[in-house]
Amino acid sequence: MRKEATIYDIANAAGVSIATVSRVFNNSPRVSASTRDRVCVVARELGYVPHPTARSLAKRRSHWISAVIPMMTSYFYLEVLRGVQDSLVCSDYDLVVHSTASMETIDDQLANVIQRGRSAGVLLFSTPLDAERTRLLQSSRQPVVLVDVYHSDFDAVSIDNELGGYMATRHLIEQGYRRIGIITANAASAPSIEREKGYRRALREAGIAYDEALVRASDDPDYHGFTEDAGRSAMEGFLDMDTPPDAVFAVSDIQALGALQAMQERGATAIGLIGFDDIMISKYVGLSTLRQPMYEMGRVALEKLLRRIEAPERPISQMHFNPRLVVRGSSAPAAGELAHSTPITGIAYV
Amino acid sequence: MRKEATIYDIANAAGVSIATVSRVFNNSPRVSASTRDRVCVVARELGYVPHPTARSLAKRRSHWISAVIPMMTSYFYLEVLRGVQDSLVCSDYDLVVHSTASMETIDDQLANVIQRGRSAGVLLFSTPLDAERTRLLQSSRQPVVLVDVYHSDFDAVSIDNELGGYMATRHLIEQGYRRIGIITANAASAPSIEREKGYRRALREAGIAYDEALVRASDDPDYHGFTEDAGRSAMEGFLDMDTPPDAVFAVSDIQALGALQAMQERGATAIGLIGFDDIMISKYVGLSTLRQPMYEMGRVALEKLLRRIEAPERPISQMHFNPRLVVRGSSAPAAGELAHSTPITGIAYV
DNA sequence: GTGAAAGCGCTAACAT
DNA sequence: ATGTTAGCGCTTTCAC
User: Fold this and answer.
1) Mind listing the pLDDT tens digit for each residue in A244-285?
2) Domain of B136?
3) In a domain? residue A2
4) How confident is residue A218, by pLDDT bands cut at 50, 70 and 90?
5) How many Å apart are CA B230 and CA B219, to the nearest integer?
6) Number of domains into which chain B is organized
7) B240 and B106, same structural domain?
8) Among the listed residues A249, A247, A248, A255, the one whose alpha carbon sits nearest the alpha carbon of residue A279
9) Is residue B1 part of a domain?
10) Residues of A in contact with B64 (CB under 8 A)
11) Minimal CA–CA distance to B319: which of B338, B309, B305, B339?
């Protein structure tokens, strides 16, 4: 690396001490206007810019926010990260992204990230907190904000998954469906569990008996079972039943898409379907779903983190967004009620 | 931040000097096995882990790779970043992501990122290099790899956009279309320009006259014109013509999707259509397109960057991927030739 | 093989 | 308002 101007060069050239230069670059009020100007001019001429690493070391605080993201494959993370970034620009932090290919390596990453001096704070995404992780995080005393997952001991921004599951199921019921199946993700997935709870509540409330045969969990170990293939085979299982469900709630859009493919292949397009997430594709295929305010979640998460970095002892602050029901063709009124008004016939899947 | 063990604590506890501890953690061969073991044991007990910032400062090299991404909104970046991350794990670098909300702020970000000591290298995405940027990057002497854009003076991984445009157009011609329009992005967009070149070459080769009326540039300033709305209004323009084109090549899938919506609204589904990118949605709506090997591009980009960091003077190395034609229903043989075998009727757009 | 000591570039008391 | 100086936690000669 080429030799570049340091604070000493500036001090020399401007005829002041390094302390003064440092003060200028830290916006200290204890510098006269004329000195400040002189230093700035010289600095510009020499192309000086403070060395962030040296600064971090001397200040004993890092300038990095770490985002720890397991399996960063969905549009969800992109949107949330956009929100994070947009809140970040006004701060002097940089965003370092640690994504992992599988859930197994998340703990290594996490251990890495919470080392002293590595980051000012961490945004932990979609990772269920068991006792061990909780202990690790707490003992590190790192500012942490949970995103897309909930734990009472940490700041968090998430959505009300139970409510979402309830809304989805309730919507199907209102559309006239009665035999409503659910496609869940892995048994260990917290969002999936919550959404299923909502599903049960809606059924209960409507006086519809809960039927285990209408619950199909994804056994796909990838992505916690949030995959197209998982949705497809779950739906195939439903279609193989003597009396398939007349509607299905898939706990994610990506699974719903797989399910949709299975439906089309079997010509079972009259089955009502609703997903969860409102990924980009969903509007194109007319999939009803629950939308998460992803961008907003990112903004809020970062703000919470910044606030906690400033005041580590402040009380826990959590934000629970409500999902929004997005009604499209896939949950058109049940055949018994009314014909599908916007049948989903059109997926030209290749 | 809680007081944590430093190299001095370890040295004390192990009865050696800090130099020795440092050597242990830098895998220096000049330390006896027994000392090494002792240090390691003590370090583990005290939960010591080297301070990355201090290390960076002392070593005069940073541990951060910066990815500079203008308008990180598309799935493309997610996939590329996955490739980058997966190549990153074996190195001791971290990935810091600088994305910008608009193209205007990219230069600020860039200036920021190439400051001395900020990053070991930078991955610059999708940013056309004018003289000013080129000068800036070169004078910074930072290792840089360009992604999704080409410039002879830098390492780069990109795809052959001209070839892609050629392949797209040629495919439409082979399917029997003759009056082929093109929807481009902003005039300043390098990929768009290249793809249009390929379009012209294919026409020329087939003896089809180039017709200015069949070229519609996007005037949408957002995202360089790579937007759904831009595609939609361009297609509307085509449909308003006395003799609309019988097929259209949109230089991105996202524009093609907008175009598709316009076609459906006007009932003009017989028009052949092909996009570019193969975004996730495309397979669901049956959009023919050119696929970019995104994940692979990420891997290669990072490898190139790592290599250049090690050997700054090595010759420029560029990788030009070939796009792959993905044929779906939207480019079914022209009506004159054969009926659309897989008509795209199914977009239930809400 | 190991230690002493001089940095890396900056910040932050403490002086003046 | 400005300068002096002692760190921040580590690496790296240079001795021994």
Assistant:
1) 999 999 999 999 999 999 999 999 889 999 999 998 889 888
2) 7-159+293-321
3) no
4) confident
5) 7
6) 2
7) no
8) A255
9) no
10) 94, 96
11) B305
Residues B307, B256, single domain; the answer is no
Judge whether B315 lies within some domain.
Answer: yes
Examine residue A210 and state whether it is found in any structural domain, yes or no.
yes
How far is residue A215 from each of residues A96, A182, A273, A324, measured CA to CA in Å? 39, 5, 14, 24
Among B347, B330, B342, CA closest to B177: B330
Which residues in chain A touch residue B57, judged by CB atoms under 8 angstroms apart? Answer: 51, 53-54, 57
Pair B139, B73 in one domain: yes
Q: Are residues B266 and B307 in the same domain?
A: no
Closest CA to B36 of B49, B47, B20: B20
Going edge to edge, which strands form the sheet with B155-159? A318-321, A155-159, A144-147, A121-125, A64-70, A94-100, B94-100, B64-70, B121-125, B144-147, B155-159, B318-321
pLDDT at position A220, please? 81
Contact B52 A280 (CB under 8 A): no
Residues A65 and A197 in one domain: no
Closest-approach nucleotide to residue A5, Cα vs C1':
C9
d(CA B168, nearest CA chain A) in Å = 18
Strand D neighbours (CB under 7 Å) are A 15-20, 23, 29-32, 34-36, 54, 57-58, 60, 117; B 6-8, 18-19, 22-23, 25-26, 48, 50-51, 54-55, 57-59
Nucleotide nearest to B7 (CA to C1'): D9
The pLDDT-based confidence of B269 (bands split at 50, 70, 90) is: confident
Tell which residue, B192, B190, B241, has the closest CA to residue B212. Answer: B241
**Length A53 CA → D14 C1' (Å):** 27
Name residue B43's beta-bridge partners. Answer: none
Model confidence, pTM: 0.85
| Mean pLDDT value across chain A | 90
In this structure, what CATH number is given to the domain that contains residue B83? 3.40.50.2300
Same domain as B88, residue B64: yes
Query: What distance in Å separates residue A72's CA from the closest CA in chain B?
Result: 7
Tokens of A245: 């469900």
Number of CB atoms found within 10 A of residue B44's CB:
10
Euclidean distance between CA atoms B170 and B181, whole angstroms: 12
The stretch A41-65 carries a mean pLDDT of 92
**Alpha carbon of B245 to those of B126, B236, B238, B273, B287: distances in Å?**
30, 12, 7, 10, 18
Does the pLDDT of residue B70 top 60, yes or no? yes
Distance A28 CA to C9 C1' (A): 19
Minimum distance, in Å, between the CA of residue A209 and any CA atom of chain B: 33
Q: What are the C-alpha distances in Å from B307 to residues B96, B144, B317?
A: 19, 11, 10
Domain shared by B315 and B340, yes or no: no
Query: Using CA atoms, how far apart are residues A253 and B281, in angstroms rounded to an integer?
Result: 12
Same domain as B96, residue B31: yes
> What's the pLDDT score for residue B336?
56
- For B297-307, b where at least 16 C-beta lie within 10 A, e where not — what string? bbbbbbbbbbb
